[in-house]
Amino acid sequence: MNTGIKKIPRVLTYLVLSFWALTTIYPFIWVLLNSFRKKGLILSDSFSIPLGDAFTWDNYITAWQRADFKNAYFNSFLISGTVTIFVVIIAGLAAYGLVRYRFRGRDFLYSLIMAGMMFPVFSTIIPVFRLEVMLGIAGTGNRWLSLLAVILPQIAGNLCFAIIILMGFIQSVPIDLEESAYLDGCNVFQIYFYIIIPAAKSSFATVAIFAFLWSYNDLFTQSFFLRYPQERAITGLLNEISSQAGVNYGLMASSVVLVVIPVLIVYICLQKHIIKGLTAGAVKG
Amino acid sequence: MNSMIYKNKKPLLVFLVPAFAFLIVFLYYPFFQNVVNTFMRIGGLGRAAQGLNTPWYENYRRLFTDPYMHTALQNTLLLTLCTIVFQVGIALILALLVDTIRVGAQFFRTVYFFPIVISATALGLMFNLIFLYKGGMVNQLLLSLGRLPYEVKPSGKVLVQWLDWKDQAHFLFTMFMPVMWQYVGFYFVILVTGLNNISPDLFEAAALDGADGWKRTRYITLPLLRNVLCTCLVLAITGALKVFDLPWVMFGAGMPENRGWLTGTYMYDQTFNRMNVDYGSTIAVLIVVLGVVLSNVANRVFRPSDDL
Hints:
The complex is a heterodimer of chains A (285) and B (308). With 285 residues, chain A is mainly alpha-helical. Chain A contains 13 helices and no strands. Chain B contains 13 helices and four strands. Chain B has a two-stranded antiparallel sheet with strand order 1-2. A two-stranded antiparallel sheet of chain B has the order 3-4. At the A-B interface, helix 1, helix 2, helix 4, helix 5 and helix 6 of A face helix 1, helix 3, helix 4, helix 5 and helix 7 of B.
């Protein structure tokens, strides 16, 4: 579509756009190249492609040996997978209820959700920690309980954003569909599962992707509840490696690559949904 | 919208109870408890309060007299301002430009969103390598462009005066740049969709009236984008106030020389490294209050009408 700025020559437009694309892509390529470069060469020549003598797998071998990546991947996927499933189910129900029903206190609940988006994690984490210690979930040394201790606050932390995005989308589903289903004898829950969810599929996908990524990338909550080596999740592992690596920049680069790769795969497979689903909800304001 | 399907309010409980149960137990109650904590004396993480502080408002008095808190507040407000101007600004320019092209638009959308999906820890390490004192990407680039002074010793060794990107003169740039860069794509995507929602009829009408190029952007596109821009603004403000992990991974506790604090990193340091749990809670309350006030101001100033 053509919305303005016609006078700028095409070449210049592409030049500017490509420049920004370069800033978002090149740093990753730079890290990737240097993760395959021999020790010591990074500081003297980091721009060339590591070929022949300069190429090495050592950085990856060291990273894999020094840290328990397999276990950390498992923990991370278990945490983020569970968080994602619960966020999608719970937020979907709430968003549907808030959009379609008119009841007293609805505006109040909506502003509660808006307010919930403003709380930084660190303002709630200490009381959550005490609560979970009291309930016997956190600080027990039991691996599965510790993982649960991360999962619970992460679900709550992702809910507000998810509800807002889903509300925006469900609002745009035409209500006629639901009415004809109702006349055909569907009850509200059937309407929700057979009409709303399929209609708002891409925004559910968006919410799922964001819940997964934010949970996977959330160093703060992870480092708070996962204190023992076998509990460690992937970002916590990266943080630990970086504090031990010192001047071993090759090791740092390869660890960054190992942590980033699963996320990139998820993103590239699902990026169409992210962009479609996110904006439909957010633009409503 | 009040369809007959939704007259029976009983199923509503099933829809709302799970979400609000979670929110109350793990978000609202903890936040309320956090406000209570600001008036208490607390010995350490996970410990019960030892009673009221003396005087009870001690933490708030401290908030206003703490010089590091002043630094943190200054830096954070500056970051918020930079976020608004550069993050949303760059995103707007990129969105307007992408809107004029057809080939490659999808590519740019995908690529601009890239940094957002990556963990701040990984990005922090990446930028540490990029801004590395001796032989980082930026310094190597400057050297190859001949912008760094160096001398060749008689022994043949090259002695370079590397630029320290984390010293007093450069730390603000080094700290803010990655934070701003990371989220440009987020606002870009929101703005692009806002642009797509503008009816093409309007532009045809404008073209008939002889409005073209800049005039069209200035008098049609931007006013119609106002609400979307306002959403971006509020998201940018609350986002900037909460910034924590990227600066923390890159700078740690207040480097250089206690001038690099942000409200987020200072709060973390007070709570988890110095065990001033009650004071840390107070800073967290300040962050939320600032967020609410600033986003309300932004809303008042930039969103005067709902009819667009």
